[in-house]
Specification:
With 351 residues, the chain is an alpha/beta fold. The protein is elongated and about 75 Å long. The chain has an 8-stranded mixed β-sheet with strand order 9-8-7-10-6-11-12-13, sandwiched between helices. Strands 1-5-4-3-2 form a 5-stranded mixed β-sheet. Strand 15 (269-274) and strand 16 form a beta hairpin. 29% of the residues lie in helices and 25% in strands.
Length: 351
């Protein structure tokens, strides 16, 4: 798209320093992604520093879209009244091919692992997919970019999930409580919403467990599509209220933990229950309580994506943990095991 096309796509009040046309293919509010083909979005009501804006200008960005003229910048500036609304219009003009299947995973612990497990199952079955989260941006299991946030800004969600061709691809991403509370997801279409667990975390931001839970539950009562599917850990305390709310909206629910999908371990025998079907699982590399719980969630997400359970079960022995998540290193010299994990709660290390 050319800069001259902007006024045709959004409501621009005034244009400054527009001397020659330039091409752009994306927009961002994250200065780390600002480059010669990416327009920078600047909300002057936020606390963005002058130094950061100038660094982006040095990266030869084609223009800035902002809600107030920035007097220390001499590149094209497009001034709009409602920045959020105009950015949303532009996003939908730039990123037109959105995946039919989108999966958002929230929870105190396990988001990264569940996203990784779902992607791993899809990769093993040769289903195209992309993921966004703490580990970065991945395409079919291959890392493309690092990210600075667990859940990126709204325009980045569209950017990483956009398709060059209209193909059947699955887009899986982590939905943090901060992103949900700050409405960073807005009206991005979510087909499958999953929650792993809830425990004390981020109370410096949310102030109380009540507000923290409310932020998490937004994924289901605000962002999940009406024809979508909710994947819920039945072990979560006081989850019945959310389940009843979803039932009243006639939203499909898949429970894992005690109903629908769960593992049982007796001696060395591991059994997987999927509805009324029973599978003996051999040679599973994931065997701790938290790993199996996260795997239950991933299996439920794949079932919600209409993948046949026998296909899913066949992939399970080949699933391993993502980097830095109960990552096991076997040190033969000392005959010891080393576990690497970037856990931020005690529950995440309960194995």
């Amino acid at each position: 798209m050319q800069l001259s096309d902007l006024s045709k796509k959004i409501n621009v009040n005034k244009i400054y320093h527009f001397k020659r046309n330039k091409y752009f293919s994306s927009i961002t509010s994250n200065t780390k992604f600002a480059d010669k083909h990416t327009i920078l979005i600047v909300n002057t009501n936020s606390k963005i520093k002058k130094k950061i804006i100038l660094e982006s200008v040095q990266n030869n960005i084609p223009a800035i879209i902002t809600n107030r003229y920035i007097n220390f910048v001499n590149i094209p500036q497009f001034i709009v009244t409602n920045l959020e609304l105009e950015v949303e219009k532009l996003i939908k003009n730039i990123y037109k091919n959105i995946p039919q299947n989108t999966v958002a995973v929230t929870g105190t612990n396990g988001k990264t692992s569940v996203v990784w497990y779902v992607s791993s199952i899809l990769n093993l079955l040769n289903y195209p997919n992309s993921t966004v989260g703490t580990l970065g941006y991945y395409k079919n299991g291959k890392k493309i970019n690092d990210l600075s946030l667990t859940t990126p800004a709204y325009e980045e969600l569209f950017k990483f999930g956009s398709l060059s061709k209209n193909i059947n691809e699955t887009y899986i991403f982590e939905a943090s409580s901060h992103a949900l509370d700050q409405n960073r997801i807005r009206n991005y279409p979510i087909k499958v919403a999953a929650i792993t667990n809830i425990s004390n975390d981020h109370l410096d931001y949310h102030k109380s467990m009540s507000h923290y839970k409310k932020a998490k539950f937004k994924l289901f009562n605000k962002y999940l599509l009406k024809n979508g599917c909710a994947v819920i850990n039945s072990r979560i305390k006081h989850i019945l209220k959310l389940i009843e709310l979803l039932k009243s909206k006639k939203i499909k629910i898949i429970l894992f933990g005690s109903k629908n999908i769960f593992f049982k371990k007796k001696a060395s025998i591991l059994t997987l229950f999927i509805n009324k079907n029973v599978y003996k699982i051999n040679n599973l590399t994931l065997n701790s309580k938290i790993e199996l719980e996260n795997l239950e969630c991933a299996i439920a997400c794949c079932l919600a994506l209409k993948i046949k359970e026998k296909k899913i079960v066949k992939t399970l022995p080949y699933i391993f943990n993502p980097p830095g998540r109960l990552q096991k290193i076997y040190y033969n010299k000392k005959k010891s095991n080393i576990i690497i994990d970037n856990a931020h709660t005690t529950e995440a290390l309960t194995i």
